[in-house]
Structure formats: C-alpha cells, structure tokens
UniProtKB/TrEMBL annotation, chain A:
One of its GO terms (biological process) is protein transport. It is a multi-pass membrane protein. This is ABC transporter permease. Residues 82-271 form the ABC transmembrane type-1 domain. Belongs to the binding-protein-dependent transport system permease family. It comes from Antarcticimicrobium sediminis. SUPFAM superfamilies: MetI-like (SSF161098). The keyword rRNA processing does not apply.
Length: 283, 336
C-alpha cells in the first residue's frame, strides 16, 4: 500500500511539473511576444502563402512553422495568440471563481432563502446548452475581449457555486463552526474566516480547471467567428482557418491545435495534481 | 417521501426551471443589436413597410407583452414563425431533432461500450501495467473536451488516413426513401444497409468525439466501484466456490458496482447533448445545434427561442428520468 501511495505521489509530481513548465513557457512567450516572434503576426504576403514548416522542401527559415493562406507566420501568430488565451484564462477564470465561490459559500453556509434562490438559478443555468448560451451572449454583447470574459463568467459561475455550496454545507455542520457561532461572532465573518480557508483548496483546484475551460470557450467562439476582431491572432481563429485549408496546408491547423491541446491538458493536469497535493490521505 | 410525491415535486421544479429558461432567453435575445426586420426587407422599403412587418411579428409591443403572447402560443403548441425561413418554428425544430437525438444516442452507446470495457479490463488486470495505462488514458480523455477531440479526429481520420466522412449527415448523392427524419433507425427498419453504412460513416467521428470524455468518466468511476466491491466478503465467497475471476467480476461484482455509474451517466448525458451544438458545427452535421448557431447569426429570434426551450426540455426530462430510475433501483430511496 505504501508503495502504491509513493507511485501515485511521484506520478502526480511529474504531472505537476510537466504542466507547470508548459504553462510557464506560454506565459514567457506571451509576455515577451514582440521580442521572440520571428515575424509580425499580421503581416500578409500573398507570394509567401502556405509555406510549409522548416523540415519540408520549399520552406523558408524565417517562417519556422510555415505560413497560412495569407502568408502570415504561423509561429508568430501562435505566440501572439498566447497573450489573448492566457489573458482570458486569467481574467475570466478569476472573476468566475470569485463570483461563483461567493454565491456557493452564501448558499451553503446561510441556507434558507438565499440557498433557495441560488440553487434554483443553478438549476435553470444547467438547463442551457453552454455553448449555445455563450454564442447567444456574444451576439447580444457584441464581439470583443470584454464580451468573451463576461460570457464565460455568466455561463460558468455555476461550476463553482455547485461544488462550493456542497463543501460549505458540510463544513458548516462541523463542531468548529458551531463553537464559533456560540462565541457570538457575526455569521458573515465566520463564513469568511472559518469556512473559506477550509474550502480554499477546492477553490484553487476548480480555478485551475476553469482557466483551461476559459481557453477552450474562447477558441470555440473564435471558431464560429464570434470572438474578437479578425486582426488579432487567436488560436481559435487560426484553427477555424486551418480547418478550411486542411487539404492544402495541414500545418495551419496542426500547430495551433497542438498548442491548444497541450495548454488545456496542462491546466487540467495542474488542477488534478493540486487536488492530489491537497488530499490529506495522499499527503 | 413516497415515489408519487417525489415525481410531483420534480415536475414542479421542472416547470419552474423551464419558465426560468424561457424568461431569460426571451429577454436576452430581445436586446440583441441588429434588426431582424431590416434584414428581411429589400433596400428602399418605406417606414410603413417596416411598421407593418414589425406588427406582423409582434415586435411593436413591449417585451413583457410579447412574452405573454409567446407563452400563450407555446401552451397551444405554437412556437411562432421563423424569420429567415418563414416556416413554423416547431416544424423546423422537429425536423432537426431526430438528427441530434441519433447522434447523442450513438455517442452514449459508444461511451458506455468504451468506458465499460476499460473499467472491466482495468479491474481484471488491477495492479499491472495495463491498469496504469488505462488510468493515464482516462486522465487525458477527461482533460480534453469534445471540441478538441473532434478536431483531432478530423485530422487523423479525415486527412491523414481518410476512412470516415468528416462533413454532413449523409452523402448527398444517395436517394433517401425515408418518411421520418430518424434516418439511422429507419434505414435499419427498411433493411437499407447501404444507407445505414453511409450514415454511420458520417456519424462515427462526431459521435466518438462526444463520447470520449463520457467514456473516461464511466471508466474511472466504474473501475473504482468495482475495485471496492471486489474486496467485499460475498465476492470472496464466490471466489472460494471456484468461479473464475471473469465470472466473479461480471456476475458478482458488476451488478452491485454499477448503480453510481448509472446515475452519473444520466447527468453527464445532458452535458453530452449540450456538446452536440459545437460538434455539429465542426462536422457540418445538419442537426439542432448547427441550426441554432445559424439562427443566432441570422438574428432569427423565434427560432432561437424554440431551440433553446427544446434543449432545456430535453435536459430536464433526462434528469427526471435519471432521478426516477435511481429511486426505482435503489430500495433505500424507494421507501425512505
């Protein structure tokens, strides 16, 4: 049994490090994009369209991962696309987490009518197909970065609210909370000072997962041409264009797809790794 | 709480949920910028024409008034008229529903077969390298959503090794003798296996993309419950009776371990149906989700409403069925 536990721990460690390194690399790429991108991501050159990646015949060393049908450099667009993807992940993820966790804490700890209202809202939200809801919201709000962030927050707050509500409920039934109540403290301050620290590990895990989801939602919206203006490179719009020219230039689809795949995988593996890390049984 | 009271309570919450969905959609889409009326009229139409058309679609009234009129229509089976195609919304939506249902059910079947096989194999070979591999595969399958799996499959089986169709529901050249839109089902009934094969070859990739995350969840949970059950005394007893390991797993452990997985499948199935929206778009599959995205792009308000309400209805019905099945299967809930 001790061996198995060691194995799980070691595997979790590897997962954590691999995914953290990939995300760290992306953050560096996003921050230093103007310094490391070989080309201007928006520069079109119709004579240099659909250049293959560097190892194939007819490639150009200045375009290491090839160019798309308008002659734009694929690598530079991926690097600049990381800015938007990580920005959305960070801002939308954090806002969703704050709002959803707060409502979940209120519902789970205060119970009564706040719980009724919030739980009923969660039920209604769960009856919407999320992707359709997101597209609808973007149609209402108009395209743009802030619309994407609002759409993600509006759709996904229930993820946090549901889980945190259940956790807050089971924490609220424990003795330490009862003794805090007996000592006459305000319920709101007990919620923040006693319950919150105990559900924080769960919140952190959910936040990590939510960041991956935010990246995907942005890509899906770009894919249906509802993300942001076409002159900003995003992974989703690259994938959408690549899907159309898949038989002529596979690299336009493959490289952004692999990037997106690894990023989403890393966020969720990071979340799983953190979950194991916080788990007292494994620790 | 008796079963009857449980059902009544569920029906009541279902109604509240559906009305909530209707209200939210109704108000959200009415603040959509982009005037659907302007899109319908030829350039140079006068003010009078615009006013007449607005009145025709009831868009000249206040939003709460419009909602009451719409709700009254819905209760009489009238979901309004699509602005882009000028056909009744109900007719349009029902014509696409079978395609989405067939895709979702096929995905569910694939998920159950795939997930079940992995869980049983993992239990049979527990503690070996095979189980470790299954865990890693599960982890990956869970982390990556259906949209990305769809893209990966388009690359692998549409371009690199083109064995499946990656676009549409059926080859346009085929002559379809069907009277319903349940093509897959009807092709079997009519013994037209040529059409059936063509349909499956179109559906398999999108269905698999939808199925993979669910298969991983099934595999993970079922394997865990099986492993817990395998330690119980009655399982050990049946082993001492001389039954083989395969028999013990499938006949003794499985029936008791399967209940939590069944509940989970029900909940996750609604997520799978929600996933059809983008997967249908990705594979140009002519279902409800694809129609919904077009409706949003064309600002076809009555059609958007109709589709969202139908999705919400499907979700709540699936949840209700799951809940009741669980209550019926679990004796503690039946009388408790």
């Amino acid at each position: 049994m001790a061996d198995a536990r060691g194995l799980v721990k070691r595997r979790a460690g590897v997962r954590l490090w691999l995914s953290a390194s990939w995300l760290g690399l992306l953050v560096l790429a996003a921050v230093f994009a103007p310094l490391i991108a070989p080309q201007d991501p928006l520069m079109q050159d119709l004579f240099g369209a659909r250049l293959p990646p560097f190892w194939e015949a007819g490639s150009d060393a200045a375009f290491p991962l090839g160019s798309d049908s308008l002659g734009r450099d694929v690598l530079s667009r991926i690097i600049y696309g990381a800015r938007l993807a990580l920005g959305v992940a960070l801002i939308a993820g954090t806002l969703t987490c704050l709002i959803g966790s707060f409502l979940g804490l209120i519902a789970g700890y205060f119970r009564g009518w706040p719980d009724m209202v919030i739980s009923r809202l969660v039920d209604i939200w769960m009856a919407f197909p999320p992707v359709l809801f997101a597209i609808l919201l973007i149609a209402v709000l108009g395209t743009g970065l802030s619309s994407i962030i609002i759409a993600i927050v509006v759709i996904d707050w229930t993820r946090f609210a549901r889980v945190i509500r259940a956790e807050a409920m089971s924490q609220g039934a424990m003795d330490y909370v009862a003794s805090a109540q007996v000592s006459g403290r305000k319920r709101f301050s007990i919620m923040l000072a006693e319950i919150l620290p105990n559900v924080l590990p769960t919140i952190v895990v959910l936040l990590t997962l939510e960041m991956g989801i935010a990246v995907i939602v942005e890509a899906i919206l770009s894919f249906v041409n509802l993300s942001i203006s076409t002159d900003q490179p995003t992974w989703g719009s690259m994938i959408s264009e690549g899907r159309l020219s898949i038989h002529q230039a596979w690299w336009v689809l493959v490289f952004p797809l692999v990037t997106l795949f690894l990023t989403v995988l890393s966020f969720s593996q990071l979340g799983e790794g953190l979950k194991d890390h916080f788990d007292p049984v494994l620790r | 709480m008796t079963l009857l009271r449980r059902i009544l309570l569920r029906l009541l919450t279902m109604a509240i949920t559906l009305i909530g969905v209707a209200i939210i959609v109704f108000f959200v889409i009415r603040v959509v910028p982009g005037n659907p009326i302007a899109m319908m009229l030829p350039p140079g139409a006068g003010e009078e024409d615009i006013a007449r058309l607005k009145a025709l679609y009831g868009l000249d009234k206040t939003i709460p008034e419009q909602f009451v009129i719409w709700l009254n229509g819905v209760l009489h089976g009238d979901f309004g008229t699509s602005i882009t195609s000028r056909q009744p919304v109900l007719k349009l939506v029902l014509s696409r529903l079978p395609a989405t249902l067939e895709l979702s059910i096929m995905a569910l079947v694939i998920a159950v077969i795939l997930g079940g096989t992995l869980a049983l194999t993992g239990t049979r070979r527990r503690g070996t390298r095979t189980e470790g591999t299954i865990d890693i595969v599960n982890g990956m399958a869970l982390s990556v959503p259906d949209f990305l799996w769809g893209l990966v499959f388009i690359l692998l089986f549409g371009v690199l090794w083109p064995v499946f169709h990656i676009s549409g529901r059926v080859s346009p050249a085929l002559d379809l003798p069907f009277v319903t839109n349940f093509y897959l089902f009807e092709s079997v009934l009519r013994l037209r296996f040529d059409i059936w094969a063509d349909l499956v070859s179109h559906m398999f990739m999108p269905a698999l993309a939808l199925a993979i995350p669910l298969a991983a969840i099934i595999s993970q949970l079922l394997k865990q419950s099986l492993k817990e059950t395998m330690h119980l005394d009655y399982v050990t007893l049946s082993r001492t009776k001389g039954y083989g390991e395969n028999h013990v797993i499938t006949h003794e452990a499985l029936p008791n371990a399967v209940l939590p997985t069944l509940t989970l499948i029900g909940v996750q199935f609604t997520f799978l149906i929600g996933g059809t929206v983008i997967i249908e778009r990705l594979f140009s599959y002519e279902g409800l989700g694809n129609m919904a995205i077009d409706a949003v792009i064309n600002r076809d308000l009555p059609l958007i409403q109709g589709i969202v309400i139908l999705f919400a209805l499907i979700f709540t019905v699936v949840n209700l069925v799951v809940d009741l099945t669980y209550a019926a299967l679990n004796p503690r809930l039946r009388n408790g």
